Amino acid sequence: MGATEQKAYLVLENGKVLEGKRFGAAGDVTGEIVFTTAMTGYLETLTDPSYYGQIVVQTFPLIGNYGVIPSDFESASPALKAYIVREWCQEPSNFRSEGVLGAFLESAGIVGLYGIDTRALTRIIREYGVMNARITSSKEEAENCAAALKEYAVKDAVNAVTCRRPIPPPVKGERRVVLWDFGAKANIRRELEKRGCAVTTVPAGTTAAEIAAMDPDGVMLSNGPGDPAENIAVISELRRLCERKIPLFGICLGHQLLALSQGAKTAKLKYGHRGANQPVRDMETGRVYITSQNHGYAVVADTLPGNARLSFVNANDGTTEGIAYSDMPAFSVQFHPEAAAGPLDTRFLFDRFIDMVDRYKTR
Questions:
Q1: This prediction's pTM
Q2: Which of 122, 182, 218, 283 would give a disulfide with 247, using CB separation of 3.0 to 4.6 Å?
Q3: Is 309 exposed, middle or buried (0-12, 13-18, 19+ CB in 10 A)?
């Protein structure tokens, strides 16, 4: 039996079991199962640190058709637990391709599963909500491990994916920006560099005093994985940093942490927003933008403090998608304006941040 024909079972916390076939790395694995609706950008999905601890299901049926392109990666290596697709392409065709998906997953130690009815699986997750799951080769284990799955939880996620030491600016720039790395996607730095920023990346454990000592013109709060409220030390330091009135721009987890630092609360969504087709409405203009998103938690709008106002809301479910602050130069969004593979409708938010930085530089 070939490696691509080995049976494996996907066991869900609610007791359902689906049969598929293995590709990528060998082994059994447990994680939190989520789905993403993106039709392109599977390489960015695989290398997005925000998927730490999760088993990711692609709803688009064919994955791997343009191969593996390292220059499109959002981090050095995948942080997810496993990857599930309906069908994977073993003979990709793209002039930029440097490999095939199965070999990449194997080299990265990521378990893959294909031949699963991902449409049916997605409907289960939508109905039941995000839950834990296990991939195993043992039919006996598959029939008896559902109850034990409830014990799994994604913990200490930010510390697992943040950089270990400060990374100096790879390029020169007229503006000094600190990227506070909670699991940052590489394209955040690229978008800042395009706009004339020298970007210093710092670990999640960096203090407000250490960041202020760098004398930055602005601070970018990155995306990242896990429960935002778990990051108590980061939230405390961020609160101190806000007092210094340095321009701040938060994306995804950075958006949530900024809100928490100001007294708001966050809550877990039933199945999250993950994909490249999430509509958000600008509360000021009424315009709707299509955005890329990857998050399982959201800021609870009713808990926003007096210095904060909603700037964007999700056009599907009304959840918080953006916040602007009145007493400090800061704003944040839940979605990804830096999205590589698209959509790029909201890249103008980086220009808004640069304008804010320049205004405060001249004061």
A1: 0.96
A2: 218
A3: middle
